Amino acid sequence: MPGIWTKEQVEAWKPVVDAVHDKGGIFFCQIWHPGRVSDYYTEKWFFLNREPKDLDYKGATPEQLKLEDIPQIINDHRAAAHNAIDAVVEAVAEEIGADRTAIKLSPYDDYDGTIGDTTPEALGLYMANALTRLGILYLHVTEPRMIKVGDNYQTPRCLLPIKKAFKGTFIASGGYNKYDGDKAIEKSYADLVSFGRLFLANLDLPKHFEIDAPLNKYDRSTFYIQDPVVGYTDYPFLHVVA
Fold first, then answer.
1. Matching SUPFAM superfamilies, A to Z (predicted)?
2. pTM to 2 decimal places
3. CA-to-CA distance for 204 and 176, rounded, in angstroms?
């Protein structure tokens, strides 16, 4: 994933951000720590694989996070937030303002070898209340993955308690299509719905939804690869496939 912790990276981002602004868009920069799936060999900065070593994941062996490591990670996020305008919320909010800070949570995360939290609902509610006190711009939460029950797929847990606990704009994401997204808004399950994989394969997704046009199918094998074109900008636009 592209970084924003050096001056060179900031300069590389500027034409990208300018292009988005020229089209009337708003640019959001997601600051995150990849944890145990970060590339140990890419940059010294990415030696922060701070998770237990005995987890089942094919990648660089992570180090165990120590208490004395936490201030440095906070400062790394603070510096990235500062660079984003020229996983510690307080540090980022203090640097650029809570009204320009948003948080994405995945309390039911169970992929990339992650050991799920034993009480994800309680954790989600705690975070929602804490983030409400900070007055952040919005809270974005990912749905738990669906499981097969008989012939149907169901979501084993519900984000609604977290949504009710957070007193601000709440965004839900995770496997939504147009119908499910409209239904979630209609039933006040979320204030907004985010689309990831569908948007990646359909850069004009709002137009697709507007006219009920067929969608390009995303190619999962191209996710997170380093090629600047394949899987990112090579999907056809609507006027090409119409």
1. FMN-linked oxidoreductases (SSF51395)
2. 0.70
3. 16
Which residue is it, tokens 């719905």?
A: 193
Name the domain count of the chain. 1
How far, in Å, CA of 195 to CA of 205, rounded?
9
Answer yes or no: is 241 within a domain.
no
Instruction: Record the tokens describing residue 170, joined without a space.
Output: 């709440």
DSSP letters for 162-188: HHHH--SEEEEESS--HHHHHHHHHTT
Is the CB of residue 80 less than 8 Å from the CB of residue 117? no
Q: What percent helix, strand, coil does the chain show, rounded to 5?
A: 40, 10, 50
pLDDT at 140 over 90: yes
φ and ψ at residue 140, rounded to 5 degrees: -115, 120
Residue 148: inside a domain, yes or no?
Answer: no
The verdict on residue 74 lying in a domain is: yes
Cβ neighbors of 189 (< 8 A, separation 6 or more) are 159, 160, 163, 172, 183
What are the C-alpha distances in Å from 146 to residues 8, 168, 221? 41, 26, 21
Question: What domain range includes position 84?
Answer: 1-96
Dihedral in degrees, nearest 10, Cα atoms 74, 75, 80, 83: 150
**Bigger pLDDT: 66 or 142?**
142
DSSP sequence for 63-77: BPP-GGGHHHHHHHH
Q: Quick check: is 20 in a domain?
A: yes
